[in-house]
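Troubleshooting log. The previous run stalled partway through. Resubmitting the same two chains, unchanged.
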Amino acid sequence: MTGTDDKRWQVVERQDGLWLPLSRRNLLMGAGGVIMASSLAACGGGSAPAPAGGTDTAAAGTPKKGGDFKLGVTGGGSKDMMDGQNIVTKPDQARLVSAFETLLEFDDNYQLQTTGLAESVSADNPKQYTIKLRDGITFQNGKPLTADDVIYSLQRIGTQANGLTGFAATATMDIKNVKKIDKLTVQLPLLTADSTIPQTLASYTFGIVPVGYKAFKGDVSTQIGTGAYKLKSFTPGQQSVHTRYDGYWRESYFDSVTIIDFSDSTAQINALKGGQIDAMTDLPANQVNAVKSSGVVPLISQTGGWIPICMAIDMAPFNDPKVRQAMRLIVDRQQILEQLGSGYGQVANDIYSPFDEGYNKDLPQREQDIEQAKSLLKSAGKEGLTVDLHTTNGASGMVELASVFASQAKAAGVNITVKNDPNYYGDAYLKLAFSVDFWGTRGYLNQVQQGSLPNSPYNETHWPPSSGEGSNFGDLYKQALAETDSAKRIEIEHEMQKAEYDTGGYIIPYFNSLIDGHSAKVAGLSPSKGTLNLAGFGHGFRTIWFA
Amino acid sequence: MKFLRGGGIAGFIIRRVLLGLLVLFLVSVIVFASTQLLGDPARAILGRDATPDRLAALHKQLHLDSSKVGQYFQWLGGLLHGDLGTSLASSQPVSSVLGTRIANSLVLVVLAAVISVPISIAIGSYAALRREKLFDTLSSNLMLLLAALPEFVVAVLLVILLSTNVFHVLPATSPVPPGTHAWDYPNQLVMPVATLVIAVAPYVSRIMRASMIEVLESDYVEMARLKGLPERTVLIRHALPNAIGPVFQVIAINLAYLAGGVVVVESVFNYPGIGLALVDAVSNHDIPVVQALAMLIAAVYVTLNLLADVATILVTPRLRTRL
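Second attempt completed without errors. Output:
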């Protein structure tokens, strides 16, 4: 990678926070430190044509071949790129999954499945995994997929200088010593025990690329993955065209897929209504009912994505737990859900990762309590508190959340000035006492690793505290990573969440939904809990077809 | 101020070209200075990962290690050689990033001008002739209404009418696929061009009407009529040339506005022109692209104003003879 590439990545490096879906578990059923390959294979791996997730029952009719599928995506621009293991914009995500696949896959319920390139991923012991590849898979140039490609792929991500999104998640891997056992078997040793490895391998930025692979630099023939569609042409900021790979190991239906950049959703909706595109990402919530009359079908997926208000627990005035507590009691979560998500979403409780089996549902739902908030502020000596809340147009809802929260805070006598700073992620990010951020769906421990540890890349709240409740958070995290008994691990996770719930720095009002739209002739789409739009872009455009 | 006179039309044009270059030079200073206000571009690009060594490397790459004055002349020198630098977002030369986009926007603006100018001159003139009659009342009110509508409203109304809700005769958006030309898709051009025509026509036709009314009431038109010249000759030979002077200025201002103001139309129709490129460049802190576009738009303004002044002088003997 050249310096220029690094730079491109850096420009929007924060965006991966939303778009990198790391989750984990639910397959770690084996007690005693061994994750049985059979438990994964039993989920429906073996037979090749199984549709991803197997939840496509909602789609009526028999799939038909043919047609040119056109997808409109917002959020792209001249910094668009293509890389089997990296993205900077949303259309990049669609491009990535069209051509590149992962070893394991999440289904639409965000459960891990062995439907991907590996027929099994098993833990030989807590510090070593074995990956067995499916036989007979070829790259789009006809080259068979082998262990060498997997080793190259993992080491490419694990090399910091490459600046890939997944790098942070390779921290526990002994990346230099990944070993080939035979043509289809790879041994992955770990530096420290990490039970989240399977979830990491299923995240889309862990795409498997062929040995020697490099990011797109103008030559489409360099973009060779194992996926259903092969890159035919690509102009950043405008569109990319992908044609079906006939040697694909699973079914796919369209002759070609075109991914078109849109600068705003009005044009996108019009193009969908007028039949110029067949599907679009991010239909504005207030348009859901309006577009139905024009034959557009909304696809609403409840995800685990969240837009937190972040209080730095070591900076005034939030270094006083009473002030943090008061702020959390000021929020009317239901009102925020109505105003920001038009009701599409679910109320949250200041802790994250709702789809994780370790998500603590027993913590009492925090409700607005202005009187209690006032008295807490009074006892903290912070009556009539005035504070700046920093936000930016980083993800939809970030600016609105700040405004709505500011107006709710007035009831408690707290004066909040919303600072909408376009350079927020460049200059001040992670150094602010009070700010708004955004995150996508992730498993609990993966999320902790990204945002709630002293060495996390995106720790806005400066959690955990150095003393008092939560000060043992980092130790608990390590215990949880190494714990293979899921009941015991969930217990540890509950303890971690309790600490964050009691004294943490996040205010999490709700988990948002992804709302996309498609024309009635597109079949095979059903809601998904994952981070990517349109059910992971129709699972890499292979489980959708024209009815 | 004798040295500012003389030389007839040619002298006038030379003086105005020199003045235009001076204006562009001043604009370049302002553009350069204002893009510096965005802060250290290297810091903005690197974000949280602005470690000292990476900052230094990028500073060097962007020529930020020399003095501000040095940087300015480096940029200006490149500009004069046609070297617009390298886009920070796409790592491509700015000229190749903007080339097709400039062509696309040019197609829109030229088509809009070619269609709207004759139509609005005709409407304005005819309304002046039929002053306070039905055509005048209808056209004046319609033009007033259209002038009051923001472009995006016009664009959205056109889309609703012609492509999504009422009729389905035209495409709702106009993406020009890479490698093709805007004119390869004439039906995609109809609505963006119509929107621009509607944006420009009211102003031009209203000033044409006002100017024509003034001329028609003048002594020389009355004289021409009294001499018994046919009304057609009176209008085309005597009234129109005198009425059109002020209109050139309005046309120039409107076309110059289009050059920078196509943003909204390009956004509504997802049309890949310079407007969208500018929005993209600003949001990416892509300073070389922002600078190139700002200079381009300034140059268009200067050129159109120059052309309008020359045209005005050519049709106005009173001004012409003073040169």
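Takeaways: The CA atoms of residues 20 and 302 of chain B lie 6 Å apart. The mean pLDDT of chain B is 85.
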